[in-house]
């Protein structure tokens, strides 16, 4: 990556024809995309053509059929691993499911992206036409070819090593018989879980192996595609930087010259926003899979002994995972680095050059940062890379202490009352006695240690339990609905601002009216926040407490199927509660800041004091829902909560490890022995 960190000097002289070939987005990516076609990822015709108007996605083509075949194959093999996981939970089984299902998702995302790709490239070509008059950047096309070739070869060697080692071992174990060696390789070492569901055939083995090879390439391609496109996008901002340097060195004071540069940057920024939106699912998939397999590799390194061959494979495999993660983070960080350099250049402009256009340029850069992110959940940056590596070390050190039990008993389960009733039925009691047992021993049993049990008290406590359960759910739904309505109102204002900017409305009265509407909506939001903040705090506190409790209880053995089903349903419901409250309430913060994007793009011909006041008000007023001002609900809060829950739970289990017996039956299961219950 280091050889891509420095673009060509701004003062270097290059012909226009050379610069076009060096910098065009299409020409810089067509090498990688052309290779991907053979692995069923980007079914587009004309990738080797220089003219992007010859690019075409055709539904009736062998490439599309090949892509669909590989997607369905990945989905079938991933689903085939589920019975194996349910029968014997293991890291290998889970990893197989993650690998093949990731391949299915990768193929699906790129299949949808291929349909949009020609139109997206045409928009980029429009921006590249504007930047033809700007100083070009270095020949990144050649350098990206070298980078992609090296990483792809590394991935090929890594995959061939492990597959060849397993095949040779299989043949030797069968005394050199090739056909029996293939059978042992496919059934014993690689895909035995699939041949438990279908009869073994040599063609079936080759089909799964062919799917495996293609999906392995798609994993590497995913990361290199993100890295390459990020570097190319950063080169466009670099051209703007070079132009700004030229204007500063020539001491240009004319506002019209600076206005052209600022408006050209706005066009680059619009393309970047669309690029970021399109690449959101790719970023999520890349980070999730890479972090998961890094954890798996670290876990295996601490647990299993190495042979010389397995150690060589481990070093190559782990190194490839690190290269993938670093490439994605560094590629995304390059965009933000060039943007920050541009900010520094403008901020240090001499006083006699500084003007309103430079000021607007700086406001745009500050309020609308160009950084690759996933809907503000996290950003692809150097800081993110360091956080990931720090978290990997911390989590893995704690995770390894629980060894197999952490994997085996982190399973989720369904409906508690049905579980209790099914347990009561095993005692063979009549209906009235069963009802008494249910009300007395399973609703709120501690109450009947203080007062005598009666049927009326049991019914009253059951009704109270139902009402309190409803109120808990109602709180979360109420927060979600209020947040959704507020976010929709902010979206209406954003849509109105976008319309005024694109139709170039300069009437200050209209801008004043929409600014006042926005201020009134913000005041309403603050009023609602004051009224709802205690409810929000209560919702987050209760949901987090019970999530931690359920995670803690997951280490206890569960003797009954309905008990497992209840636990799964309960834990999944808790996660959904927290997820939807965070995401929907965070939409208020996200939607309230979106008008800034369009205000910063307003042409100079319509820019006025009302637009300036509008932008400044949004910047200095962070509108969001809060929990009594102890925390602010944004999309990033969800990841912070997830990290905190995992860290705190694992640390808690570490310190309480001497009191936890993984095979111990939980309290309900221990208590619910028919003899013990009848004695009570």
Quick take:
This protein is mainly α and 680 residues long. It has helices at 16-23, 25-37, 62-80, 82-87, 91-130, 140-173, 178-190, 192-195, 202-249, 255-278, 280-303, 308-347, 356-367, 382-399, 403-408, 416-425, 431-443, 455-502, 508-553, 561-593, 595-600, 609-620, 635-655, 667-671, 674-679. The longest helix is centred in the first third of the chain and has 48 residues, at 202-249.
Describe the structure in your own words.
- This protein is an all-alpha fold and 680 residues long.
- The protein has 2 domains: 2-408, no CATH class; 416-488 and 532-594 and 628-679, no CATH class.
- The chain contains 25 helices and no strands.
- The termini are far apart.
Provide a count of the helices.
25
Structural class: mainly alpha
Task: Report low-confidence residues grouped into runs of 5 or more.
Answer: 12-19, 400-419, 657-680
- Compute the average pLDDT: 77
Provide the helix percentage. Answer: over 70%
Distance between the termini: 71 Å
- Biggest β-sheet description: none
What is the N-to-C order of secondary-structure elements (H for helix, E for strand)?
HHHHHHHHHHHHHHHHHHHHHHHHH
